[in-house]
Design a protein that fits this description.
This protein is of the alpha+beta class. It has helices at 10-21, 199-205, 211-233, 240-247, 251-257, 261-285, 290-307, 309-325, 330-335, 339-351, 359-380, 383-398; strands at 73-78, 82-83, 94-99, 104-109, 117-118, 121-130, 133-139, 144-146, 150-157, 161-168, 177-179, 193-195.
Length: 400
Amino acid sequence: MASMMRRTPSTSVVAVAVAVAFVSLASCSSDSSDAAPAESRPSASGAESPVSGGTQAPPPSPSPTGPCADGTCEVEVAVGDVLAVPEAYGLGPIEVTAITGDSVEMAAPLTGSGFGVAGCSGGGGTSSNGGGGVTMKCGVGPAATINDAMSLKVAEIRKTTAVLRIEPAGWGGKGRLRSVGRGSRSASHSDTVSYVDTVRYLDRVTKRLTRVERREQTRVELVEAAIGLFAAHGVSSVSVEAVAEEAGYSRGAYHSNFSGRDALLAAVVQVVVSDLGAELRQRTDAEECAVAKLSEYIRTFAAYCAREPGRTRALVAVVSHRTTAGGPDYDSMVDESLGDLIAIFEQGQESGEMRRFDRVVMARLLRRALDGEAVRIAAEGAASAVADELVANFVHATRA
């Protein structure tokens, strides 16, 4: 997989990526929202202020209330305000202790057994204040990730207030915003904004994950972010920072999961290979005769490209990048992905369904035909028409 590269037009290279997915089938039988804040700051109703300065803070309510109680909000705060967040985030109510021209200072008790943070910007940092609590100092900039569960971003700092955005880590501000009403502290403060589509993210943080589980979840989200970016922009123009930011993590999270760009590219290929390989196996194994297996192989491939255009384009981008960067040429990559097709042709010849021909040559021809159509299918969704033509031609070419 790490060996895909060198010559090849991007159209051809495309499906090579998809082709790699077929290696697993050895035989056929076996945006953060930019909504402007309104004019009322919400109150932290139901939340108790944590005690800063090292004193043990009281435990948070098991059912926090207030604008951020569901885990997702954008809210204007002033010094002394307290925001209650879900216990799954590992923090009790967060108190705003200071707002300066370039940073916001906060304190909160811990509800879990540990604490981890990455990404506070503006020269700020975080430190434990003892007594089961933590303090945070963050400036306007990229979001901090806390306990691998919560994303905390200082969106704006005003004269005496600041706008904070809290959401599950990995959310990335992609939901639809809705107003959740005015706070009771002052009618002159801004409305609070909350996200609607947070269910799958809150499900993710409802239970405390082990360190291994959190790391695996982070890795999965980074790979999915890379797939989306590679599909849209190619590989060369996408930076490490862009992948991490898209996934809602820091650059450090990227480097703790991948040794380098090649490791990320291999992970992207593996994801698509696993998806497509499983489908091919299920569909071809369900057929008895070789001609039916050949037809299902072609149709499943085409249907996948149409149904998953982003994954197809991302895979094409990865293979194209590796081919350009150097490595085994296209012919070598093709030869490594022919085992499944050769097995189908071998079964057909042994059963008498197919005529005698060079199985390797025929497999190469079909592989190139599929690869050459992958980009067009992903772009136009013409899966049925392409599959019909390929099935008709290759069944005719191989039938006894």
